[in-house]
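User: I've been going back and forth on whether these two constructs are worth ordering. Before I decide, could you fold them both?

Assistant: Sure. I'll take them in the order you sent them. The first construct and its structure tokens:
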Amino acid sequence: MVLLDKERIKEIIPHREPFLLIDEVIALEPGKKCIARTYLKEDDFWVPGHFPGHAVTPGVLLIEMLAQTGAVCVGAMPEYQGKTALFAKIDKAKFRRPVLPGEVLTLEVELVRLKAQAGVGRGYAHVDGETAVTAELTFAFQK
């Protein structure tokens, strides 16, 4: 079940195409947990160059997809609306399998700490139940 489509996501976070990298939110507990999906396509902007003949979604974009999922989780809270979260640190990032065009990536971020100026989220990305990426993301709010 889709809770938020791209247009609703844009009401919460400032990202826009071509850098809005999540397609829908399927579960949301503001300030606690968010689950989103990305439908990877053959015409995504990175496919022709990463890598020709064997497209693989870049790891930095997978981390960004997790970050955008976390940003929805925080941005859905009234006290954080309109604030932009920026990376402060990326820890424990592990890439366990390539993510390919045509696959559906499910992104889950659970907030483990949230304060007025910063927070930490644990992110997990899966394809068909198989773990693709895990990471711990620390963010700070832009003033």
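The second construct, handled the same way:
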Amino acid sequence: MEIATKILTNPYFKAILSFILSFIGGKLVYSFIARIAMKWAKKTPTEIDNTILSKINAPIFYLIILYGGSIAINFLPLPALLKTTLLRVIISIVLIIGCYLLAFFLNLFIKTWLAKSKEVIAKGRENDFIAVSRKILNFIIFILLIIFILSLWGIKVTALVASLGIAGIVIGLALQTTLANIFGGIALIADRSFKIGDFIELDTGERGEIIDVGLRSTRIKSFEEGNEIIIPNSSLMNSKIINYGRPEVYLKKRIKIGVAYGSDIKKVKNILLNCTRKVKNVLKNPSPTVYFMEMADFSLNFEVIFWISNYQERLRVQDEFISLAYRELQLQGIQIPFPTRTIYIKSAEGKVDS
């Protein structure tokens, strides 16, 4: 009994036992994840859980062993300096594993988020965003890891942090425009103000179809000239944007038409409404409407309002409607006025001639 008591209270025995138990516990967790959890994950419709389990299995195993090793070191009757050094080594390894897991989860989150934003990012650009974000995140995590490890070992990092801060300011000023465009692109993707194929109009007057959202700029195919407009992401992010593709691809059209004085107002309205019904892509609901707007200097002005099923057809629909309206008004005897002026000339005798 005394022998058993001495063995159980022996610090070396406690250290060995704690390490063995942690090793067994790590193996059990590793086997559970590899055999049971992975089989369960393969039955799910997504691949994210498979990726997570495959990446965290080995790090968790090593973390459990390191935990057992730290307990074992505390049991051993070692000099304080040696014990402190060994514990710092273990903590340093734990920090490295922890930063690895942090980088993995952040990169996985970005990859998943960009995959959900594929309607915003042009095909082939997703890998560029992933590569850039991964490099930036990994660099930041690496710098933080170095600072934590140096602080753990008692090395003053104040000068290093100050140097990094100065270097960051210099780099930030040198790459101010580039970084503003990169973060502007990320903000546009996160906000999802538009997607590839949407027709937008900027406050500067440019209008066109979104064809690409890149790291530095967004490319728009102009409808007027048919050429490509390249806009920096930082400028686009701060611009007022009219998106004709949201919330629907419908477009409301307002067309003004003037007829001569003396025309039958009701007849003109009926003619214009009938023209809207004959034009393809004009929606029946909401129904087209015609309003008598004003009695101008030389014409009675009407405004026709209708909705187009696809904003990309707006020019064709407008051309077809105006052409049809002009022809129908002429056939029905409704005159289209042109500007006229009556001039009165006062003669020397005081008579007024016109």
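Notes on the second construct follow. The CA atoms of residues 120 and 195 lie 4 Å apart. The two ends are 138 Å apart (CA to CA).
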